[in-house]
Automatic annotation (TrEMBL):
<feature type="domain" description="Helix-turn-helix">
    <location>
        <begin position="6"/>
        <end position="54"/>
    </location>
</feature>
<dbReference type="InterPro" id="IPR041657">
    <property type="entry name" value="HTH_17"/>
</dbReference>
<dbReference type="InterPro" id="IPR010093">
    <property type="entry name" value="SinI_DNA-bd"/>
</dbReference>
<dbReference type="Pfam" id="PF12728">
    <property type="entry name" value="HTH_17"/>
</dbReference>
<dbReference type="GO" id="GO:0003677">
    <property type="term" value="F:DNA binding"/>
</dbReference>
<protein>
    <submittedName>
        <fullName>DNA-binding protein</fullName>
    </submittedName>
</protein>
<keyword id="KW-0238">DNA-binding</keyword>
Length: 60
C-alpha cells in the first residue's frame, strides 16, 4: 500500500475488517481523516496506517 494511495470506504472496510457504518463513524468522529472528491469519499492510505498505529499504542 503506497502512502499517497486513496482508498474507498469498501477498501478500508476490507483492510480493517469493519462494517460500513463503523468506518463512517470513524470518519465522522475524525479518528479516520478523509477527503471528498465530488460525491466520493476517499481515505488516504497513510490515515489508515496512522489509525492502526494509534489504536495499537492506546491498547499497550
Amino acid at each position: 500500500m503506497r502512502d499517497d494511495e486513496l482508498l474507498t470506504v469498501p477498501d478500508v472496510m476490507a483492510r480493517l475488517k469493519l462494517g460500513r457504518s463503523t468506518v463512517y463513524d470513524l470518519i465522522r468522529s475524525r479518528r479516520l481523516p478523509s477527503i471528498t472528491i465530488g460525491r466520493c469519499r476517499r481515505i488516504p492510505a497513510r490515515a489508515v496506517r496512522d489509525y492502526i498505529a494509534n489504536e495499537l499504542e492506546a491498547a499497550a
